[in-house]
Amino acid sequence: xxxxxxxxxxxxxxxxxxxxxxxxxxxxxxxxxxxxxxxxxxxxxxxxxxxxxxxxxxxxxxxxxxxxxxxxxxxxxxxxxxxxxxxxxxxxxxxxxxxxxxxxxxxxxxxxxxxxxxxxxxxxxxxxxxxxxxxxxxxxxxxxxxxxxxxxxxxxxxxxxxxxxxxxxxxxxxxxxxxxxxxxxxxxxxxxxxxxxxxxxxxxxxxxxxxxxxxxxxxxxxxxxxxxxxxxxxxxxxxxxxxxxxxxxxxxxxxxxxxxxxxxxxxxxxxxxxxxxxxxxxxxxxx
Length: 287
Description:
By secondary structure, the protein is mostly helical. Helices cover about 45% and strands about 0% of the residues. A two-stranded antiparallel ribbon has the order 1-2. Strand 1 (about 85) and strand 2 (about 90) form a beta hairpin. The longest helix is centred in the middle third of the chain and has 27 residues, at about 130-155. The two termini are about 95 Å apart. The relative contact order is 0.02.
């Protein structure tokens, strides 16, 4: 330091000298990969071929293949095609790295439950009513399968009618139900029987009685239905008056339906009939 103010600044400065804490050596940490890299550089060991080196060697025949670097349990699965979307679901949403571990735990739990006899059924505990229900359900399933096979054998061509259109006879329905083992003794009070009686009891529309053919022309005209714009009017004079009143009432509506100042209009900023022509001597405000 130079200058007259050295003595003034020296008392503000402090030089710290760190003392050794203990006798333990603390060498600098160098990663193992860096040491190996340095060693290869010194020995000139053959380097691993990079994709760039392969590209330079093969030229136009080079194809980038990153799947060969995939680390899989089974090496033969490296080139299997993995679908991104399957049946409308994203495959990535269902990938679980712990799936095999969870599966083993579930299998162990199932084995313990089977050993404990949790799934052992007790046929003796079922009563007669439950056995009948099971037998009836079995018969219904078998009947349903037979119906499906019969419909397939028919091989009908053309559109199929919905079930609501098809009519089933009462005798056929009762026979099928009795074959399945359903008690049809009190069938007169069943829902379908009540509905059939109710539909028959509804009174039908009374038909118009056939009258004798009209003898005169005026009589035949009077029987025909009048137009809607004439019905309810006394004579032709009243018809004309009604049409006149209708026109007068529509005047305001027609007037309001015309173009107004707010409607779209493309303005001609330079009209041809005003701006065309030669400009001679004189004023240019008129042409």
